[in-house]
């Protein structure tokens, strides 16, 4: 699956992923009106609004980007109806040829981890038939229960030609409370995120693709560029999913060290900076009715920002 993602990045020239993380405060009034007229001011109505909002953004951006990353919590808050909107979004994105990274951050052990892996990346047997549940291409996974929680996902990735991104150094301000803690390792002390990064590189050796990168990737926040530099060296065959661009403060110039000399090795996520672009003063000229056009322009601007950073760095 990593080779499919790399091929899409090469084709679009855009090492970016759009985070489809809808919140009701992002959805324009005319979309809410349509959804509530059809389904009422209910969980079903909210889920319908989310779906209509997503669909228009996808329709306006799919030709520019290689991938999307729906965050499942934004859908789960609307219950079963929200999960149905999540599934419709996943399926529609795949119809448009996009790689789908399910941002689900699962982490458990044994049969529970196997079930999570089957739900999001694999298949489940029902009688004599097998069915894919949510059927994303990648899923995000929390490593802090150890190999017991990761290996079931890797097993499914091998069977289904899928991939995972494992949390290593996350973009949130308090990530250092645990991830930066110094851990005694042999005769030295190192931050925990370095030890996790090395373990991710080890796990990834099971799934190296033709481009030299593994389908076992890592999540490293754009807000920590120096840690990104260190982890890039520790994980030379690991593709890095980089959240934190835009709304969380990350800029193109901060991201160069996540990439190799071929402008590969990383994919940068922007969520509300793209999907809610029309609410940003920079794009207010588009207005709420043309919210998806504002999203398209935000994608174009993000691609330009990253390309300028590459050129400034001589890559």
Features:
315 residues, alpha/beta, eight-stranded parallel β-barrel
List the quaternary state of the chains.
single chain
Tell me the strand percentage band: 15-25%
CATH architecture: Alpha-Beta Barrel
Query: Number of DSSP helices?
Result: 12
Strand order of the largest sheet: 1-2-3-6-7-10-11-12
Quickly give the structural class.
Answer: alpha/beta
Report the mean per-residue pLDDT as an integer: 94
Number of domains: 1
Q: What's the shape?
A: globular
- Beta strands, count: 12
Order of helices and strands: HEHHEHHEHEEEHEHEEHEHEEHH
Q: Which residues form runs of ≥5 with pLDDT under 50?
A: none
Q: In CATH, what is the class?
A: Alpha Beta
Briefly characterize the structure.
By secondary structure, the protein is α/β, with parallel strands linked by helices. Helices cover 44% and strands 18% of the residues.
Secondary structure layout plus pairing:
Blueprint lengths: L1 H11 L3 E3 L10 H11 L3 H19 L5 E2 L4 H4 L2 H17 L3 E8 L3 H11 L2 E4 L2 E4 L5 E4 L5 H14 L2 E7 L6 H4 L2 E4 L2 E4 H13 L9 E7 L4 H10 L3 E5 L23 E5 L1 H4 L15 H22 L3
Parallel strand pairs: 1-2, 1-12, 2-3, 3-6, 6-7, 7-10, 10-11, 11-12
Antiparallel strand pairs: 4-5, 8-9
Helix pairs in contact: 2-3, 3-5, 3-12, 6-7
Word description of this protein:
It is built from twelve helices and twelve strands. It is globular, with a radius of gyration of 19 Å. The model has no long low-confidence stretch (mean pLDDT 94). It has a single domain, classed as Aldolase class I (TIM Barrel), CATH 3.20.20.70. Strand 4 (123-126) and strand 5 (129-132) form a beta hairpin. It has an eight-stranded parallel β-barrel with strand order 1-2-3-6-7-10-11-12, surrounded by seven helices. Helix 2 (29-39) packs across helix 3 (43-61). The longest helix has 22 residues, at 291-312. With 315 residues, it is α/β, with parallel strands linked by helices. The protein has helices at 2-12, 29-39, 43-61, 73-76, 79-95, 110-120, 147-160, 176-179, 192-204, 225-234, 272-275, 291-312; strands at 16-18, 67-68, 99-106, 123-126, 129-132, 138-141, 163-169, 182-185, 188-191, 214-220, 238-242, 266-270.
